[in-house]
Structure formats: C-alpha cells, structure tokens
Write a structure and sequence with these properties.
Elements: E1 2-6, H1 9-26, E2 31-34, H2 38-54, E3 62-65, E4 67-69, H3 80-87, E5 99-100, H4 109-122, E6 128-131, E7 153-156, H5 159-164, E8 179-182, H6 185-189, E9 193-198, H7 204-212, E10 230-235, H8 236-239, H9 245-254, H10 259-273
Parallel strand pairs: 1-10, 2-3, 2-6, 3-5, 6-9, 9-10
Antiparallel strand pairs: 4-8, 7-8
Helix pairs in contact: 1-2
The protein binds fructose -6-phosphate (F6R).
Length: 274
C-alpha cells in the first residue's frame, strides 16, 4: 500500500482522475470499479473535463459500481444509478450497456448478487477499483463486521451510514433505505488495483485506523492492507490523523510511477507564481 498526500481536496481528486485517465489510455477496454458519494463527485468532474477537453475515450470502458440501495429504481434521485448518470455517464462517451450496477429492485436479490459476481468474472475482473471510506470505516456498503472474505450480497446499513447519506434523501436519515446490495470485501480485494480516496477532516480518524491500525472486520477499509496494489490518496485534512506522513511523502517523491504527476504539480505551481 502507498499513501499519497495532496495539498487540497481538488488536487487529490485530480490525481485520482489522472491515474484513471492514464490507465484508460493504456487499456481502452479498462474494467473500472466505481464508487459513489460526495468524495467521488470531484473525480467524475475531472474525468468529464478530460473527456471533453482532452478527448479521453470511454467508448470501450466497462464499469461496475460497488453498490445500490435495495428497493430504489434506477430513476429514483437517491439511487446510485441516478448518481452515476448525473455525475459521469451522461458527460462521457461510455456505452450504457457497458455500465453495470446491482439491481436493487430485483425480485430475487440473492440471484441478482450472484449474477453481478458472474458478470464481473466474465469481463475478466476489475482492473481498478475506486473506493471511498464511510464514517464507520466501510468500503462499498460493507458495514462493521462484514467478513473480509465476503462476496456481493445484501447488507443492512448502520445508523451512522443512514446519517452520512441522508443529504440525498432531503436530509432525513429515516428516508434512506435500510438495506443495500454491495460488492463484498473479498470481491473488492480481487480487483487488480484499488485506489481509495478520502478527503476532509471528518475522515481523518477513521482513515488512520484503516491505514495504520490493525486489520479488523470492524473497519472493513482496513482490509486494503491485504491488497497487493492499493493506493490511498488523501488531502492534508484527511491525512491529519496519520503517523507516517513523512515516510509517505518520501515514498511519493521517490516513486517512479508518480514522476509525471510530480512534474505536472511543479508546472502548476510555477504557473500560479508567474
Ligand atoms: C458508495 C460507497 C461508499 C462511499 C463512502 C464515502 O458507492 O461505496 O463506501 O464511498 O460512504 O462516501 P462520501 O464520499 O459521501 O463520504
């Protein structure tokens, strides 16, 4: 695992979007695992800009979202189908048939979960899985005590998640569906690469536990420590609870993979000073 600390929320989101863009250019039929939530909105804004400004091509890209609420149709404004259309799919040239989210309205939810897992396998597995982190440490909707080997399944959401996500439901936690379909922790860990983005001081404490604390099913995000290729991108505020900050900065400065990003940053700050 590596931790990349960026000065601002915007530069953290931009780095993640640039990383995805680089992978997409290298492999146009990329299988991209997507997350929703406020943190990701900036990433999708950057990707949409790269599509219109730099002709970033999504025409062969396939996507799989982490989760969807049970009982919400694709057109419900609180659904993740709606979120993805609003923030990404309608802004880029992705083919709708190449985008996948679990169907929370399926009659047989267990069969829907099995179908979703099979579809991911059929596409050759996920190349890059984007992750956010919930205030209770969840990735996807893998709430505390989710098995670290869990697969796509139905889960009950915690009170803290209902509160965290209430904004999309008129600010009322009681209006947030109590159950969701989510990829399991085991499903997520099978992605070839994971990229977790966390921003803001609210995430500092839980992020530090996930990255530097013990691996525990009480904080499903701590499972990323088991992943052979996981990049955690944070802004200074989210990094404020981390102990190893100096070490993480040193690695970022010396890692060849990030050279082009460091140069871009240098060019940006020269431009700002000029
Ligand atoms: C949603 C998802 C969640 C969010 C997490 C952070 O698809 O996977 O794990 O990433 O709840 O949400 P925000 O960014 O709204 O704080």
């Amino acid at each position: 695992m590596e931790v990349i600390i960026q000065k601002t929320v915007e530069s953290a989101a931009s780095l993640v979007a640039n990383l995805i863009a680089r992978e997409l250019r290298a492999k146009p039929a990329l299988v991209l695992g997507l997350a929703t939530g406020r943190t990701m909105e900036r990433v999708y804004r950057h990707l949409a800009r790269m599509h219109s400004g730099d002709s970033l091509d999504f025409s062969r890209c396939r996507t799989f979202n982490l989760d969807e609420y049970v009982g919400l149709s694709a057109t419900h404004p609180g659904s993740y189908h709606h979120y993805m259309n609003k923030h990404l799919f309608t802004h880029v040239n992705i083919r709708r048939r190449n985008t996948h989210l679990p169907d929370g309205t399926a009659d047989d939810l267990a069969a829907e979960c099995a179908r979703y897992e099979a579809l991911i396998r059929k596409c050759g597995g996920i190349d890059i899985q984007l992750l956010g982190i919930g205030s209770d440490g969840h990735i996807g909707f893998n709430e505390p005590l989710s098995s670290l080997r869990s697969r796509t399944r139905e889960k009950a959401l915690t009170v803290s998640t209902l509160r965290q996500n209430a904004a999309m439901f008129g600010g009322d936690p009681d209006k947030v569906p109590r159950r969701a379909i989510t990829m399991g922790v085991g499903t997520i860990l099978e992605a070839k690469r994971c990229v977790l983005l966390a921003t803001g001081r609210d995430k500092a404490r839980i992020l530090a536990k996930a990255v530097e604390g013990p691996i525990t099913s009480m904080i499903s995000a701590s499972a990323i420590q088991l992943h052979p290729h996981c990049t955690v991108v944070v802004d200074e505020a989210a990094a404020s609870g981390l102990r190893g900050v100096e070490y993480y900065r040193w690695i970022f400065e010396n890692e060849p993979e990030w050279q082009e990003f460091r140069q871009k940053k240098l060019r940006r700050s020269r431009h700002e000073r000029a």
